[in-house]
Specification:
By secondary structure, the protein is mainly beta. 12% of the residues lie in helices and 32% in strands. It is globular. InterPro entries: Peptidase_S12_Pab87-rel_C.
Amino acid sequence: KELADSRTVEAPTRPLDAYTGRFYNAAETLFLEIFNEGGSLRMRFFGVEEEEFVLYSYQEDSFTWLPSHDELARREHYVIEFGS
């Protein structure tokens, strides 16, 4: 809820194609693929189709994805808490 309440923009500030590409971590061992499909910005972890999420404008030129609990469970993603 806090993340959704902090959202400040409804639409990206640039054309969607300005955000597309393949983005690697510093070690170049992990990447995100960002692409425009049908007027919607999407992200894939490692380019894997099953790991695709729709991106939503959040603040300025930043984006987020807000999968539901059911969506995460369907994709077999779980939150695990360690410690107390």
